[in-house]
């Protein structure tokens, strides 16, 4: 185990001092990813709507190593706020080397009776927000001659099979298509920027509780029914993709609890 940890840290050395943008960094998977990248010496712009939680996380991890977290309040449903964030990145940190599109949400809004505003919110965050962040990150990379950057989309197993939350699945199927489409467009311009989709199954976070606000017992039952994936497991998969050698592009990672049947 010690040898594996040393090898991992050596492979991550090329990212020391480089800039990563992580969306949805105030809790769950996003928080774990931000902390993990800071521990590997990266400058991490962690964005979310909850600025106070971002500042709390930054205060816990900054000053303990080479890395640093920069909290930035940003609602990815709002294009103007995304543009302001990347303006901050360029002016304050110079460039962007890694983008982790982690922000996402789901509503139990069926196709036959779901509310339009819930469908729209899922599209705005899971599809449009991700796409705008990707566009801005890659344009900044190109403008600052970063040709070895990496875009990582935190997708879902619901992006590969239709779950009970059908509209949510549709947005995640879109993420699957957008990830591959981004990869193809980058190859068409001979860019070395890499693109990865990471699709978790059941991860024990706040997600299920937010989807079952009216009946939180359902979320509790789901998480207690199996040995769930942890947020740190997904953060480790981000590191796995980032430490791949220059000739290797890790495109798609699926991670499920062993006990998960779907």
Helix content: 40-55%
% residues in beta strands: 5-15%
Gap from first CA to last CA = 31 Å
| Total E-strand runs | 7
What is the global morphology?
globular
Order of helices and strands: HEHEHEHEHEHEHHHE
Gyration radius over CA: 18 Å
Mean pLDDT: 92
State the helix count. 9
Largest sheet descriptor: 7 strands, parallel
Largest sheet, spatial ordering of strands: 3-2-1-4-5-6-7
Detail the poorly predicted runs.
Answer: 1-6
- SSE-based structural type: alpha/beta
In short:
The chain is of the alpha/beta class.
Could you describe the 3D structure shown?
With 262 residues, the chain is an alpha/beta fold. It contains 9 helices and 7 strands, in the order αβαβαβαβαβαβαααβ. The protein has a 7-stranded parallel beta sheet, sandwiched between helices. Strand 5, helix 6 and strand 6 form a beta-alpha-beta unit. Helix 2 packs across helix 9 and helix 4 runs parallel beside helix 5. The chain is globular, with a radius of gyration of 18 Å. The N terminus is likely disordered.
């Amino acid at each position: 185990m010690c040898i594996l940890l040393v090898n991992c840290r050596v492979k991550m050395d090329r990212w020391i001092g480089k800039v990563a943008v992580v969306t949805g960094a105030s809790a769950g998977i996003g928080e774990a990813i931000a902390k993990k990248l800071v521990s590997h010496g990266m400058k991490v712009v962690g964005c979310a709507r909850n600025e106070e939680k971002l500042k709390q996380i930054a205060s816990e991890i900054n000053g303990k190593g080479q890395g640093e977290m920069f909290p930035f309040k940003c609602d990815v449903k709002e294009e103007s706020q995304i543009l302001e964030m990347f303006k901050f990145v360029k002016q304050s940190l110079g460039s962007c080397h890694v983008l982790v599109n982690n922000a996402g949400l789901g509503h139990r809004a069926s196709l036959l009776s779901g509310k339009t505003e819930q469908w729209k919110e899922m599209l705005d965050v899971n599809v449009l927000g991700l796409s705008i962040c990707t566009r801005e990150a890659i344009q900044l990379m190109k403008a600052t001659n970063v040709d070895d950057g990496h875009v990582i989309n935190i997708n879902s197993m619901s992006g590969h099979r239709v779950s009970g939350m059908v509209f949510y699945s549709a947005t995640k199927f879109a993420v699957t298509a957008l990830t591959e489409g981004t990869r193809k467009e980058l190859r068409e311009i001979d860019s070395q920027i890499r693109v990865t989709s990471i699709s978790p199954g059941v991860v024990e976070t706040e997600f299920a509780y937010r989807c079952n606000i009216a009946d939180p017992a359902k979320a509790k039952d789901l998480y207690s029914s199996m040995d769930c994936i942890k947020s740190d497991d997904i953060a480790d998969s981000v590191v796995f993709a980032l430490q791949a050698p220059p000739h290797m592009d890790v495109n798609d990672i699926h991670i499920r609890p062993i006990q998960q049947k779907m």
